[in-house]
């Protein structure tokens, strides 16, 4: 009982519950519509009573037409009440989704960036499951359940034996619900997870279809996929068998309930304790009495997947989310917000970055300053944390310590702060679905003059004009049949488009030819002359020539070195040592 109270209290304090309770007026109207609908559910019973106990005796056609007209009117009102209830519940589900969608999107986006998440958009499935439950038969059953005692009371009024029979049938249904929920357990959730993993296995391998084809691995992959799929179908088949058995039992039980009511009614008619009309009415009322409980039992037997989806959504809603500053009035912007596209320095103090909940430390004890108009190269062995260093400066990884862009903590950045301060070129550049111009402007409203300016700066203006529609050519995302160098230069244009205070480039010349290298040097000099802070992860010696200082990360992050270029180049004992570290 204590556990049940704790569960009820937990649900009561849940964010989703509080969001639902905000719409109290809608819930009240749902209850009113349900009340009208449930009261009018007595219409068929009353009609049978009138037909058998009044009209057959009086044999009055006028009375039959009058009562039939009234019944038809009640049926119309009942239908309208059910329709209104359904529309309000659907609207309530839409409002709830609109209220939490932005929060869930940004939290899932952030979680995907900062930790390994198998399926970053799984919240969409959870939201769909919860909304379908909220707008489906389960909620109707909840609003119908309070009227069951009224139906039972009417059964007692008709005859105590009918009342006790209805109570016994309801208790049996409750026992069925508890038993079936234990039999089914959390199989729906397990099947959902197995199906996702099977599909993810397929999609993951298809992303490497070229390798599968070259090394003739398609048949091996097919067998692995078939084994996984076979395992899923075996589990699905077992689940469906259990579900079919339960559904068949419930179906036969409904027939039994109605037949039992007729049997008891027939006995009472024979005994002279009930009229023929009351017998028919009792059969109809028994079906209505057990229907809400039957619906609740059906819901209870499949509640696991809804419950798990509810708590996953709840966990995401607990994660703090700061809305974009664009939605905030300018007067509310913090005095510490960055209002220009230049910063004097970026300073790090006692910064540590780790993964796997702190078990794997990548960077630690980082304390240094980067200055305006400075080019810094980040070098080091593979796995030493170079890319992580760049992601740290962009805010894409969680960290302990302090990262200040001219006295403004990176963790407090608004969207506008990020746009003004950070231009980022990752290692793997993917195109965004949209036009070439939109790819360069990062889906902002393209400024034609600025787009052409940065395209010429990175040397892709003539290349873009060869596209069928020039800058308006549609790209459909991913790698879009563009070479690595072409994507890298479009990504470089994207990084500098907004004229940010810092330019962070992760191996920007990895796929560039000689002309691309010259264009990259032009971009670096251009940004340096405009007072930007430029940080470049590189294995190429050509970039070192443009650098003012070098951050050298070794496998052990304790040995961090940040020194001027000449001192760094002089630290190599021989040309061979230098050649082993850097390529041309």
Structure description:
With 584 residues, the chain is an alpha/beta fold. The protein folds into two domains: 97-318, Up-down Bundle (ABC transporter transmembrane region fold), CATH 1.20.1560; 345-581, Rossmann fold, CATH 3.40.50. The protein is built from 24 helices and twelve strands. It has helices at 2-12, 15-22, 24-40, 43-58, 61-114, 122-134, 137-144, 148-158, 160-184, 187-206, 209-214, 218-270, 276-301, 303-318, 386-394, 415-421, 436-440, 448-457, 461-465, 484-497, 514-529, 541-544, 565-569, 575-581, and strands at residues 345-355, 360-371, 375-380, 400-405, 408-409, 422-425, 434-435, 474-475, 502-506, 533-537, 549-553, 561-564. The strands form three sheets. It has a six-stranded mixed sheet with strand order 6-9-10-3-11-12, sandwiched between helices. The chain has a four-stranded antiparallel sheet with strand order 2-1-4-5, covered by helices on one side. Helix 8 packs antiparallel against helix 9 (160-184) and helix 9 packs antiparallel against helix 12. The longest helix has 54 residues, at 61-114. It is elongated. Residues 323-335 have low confidence and may be disordered.
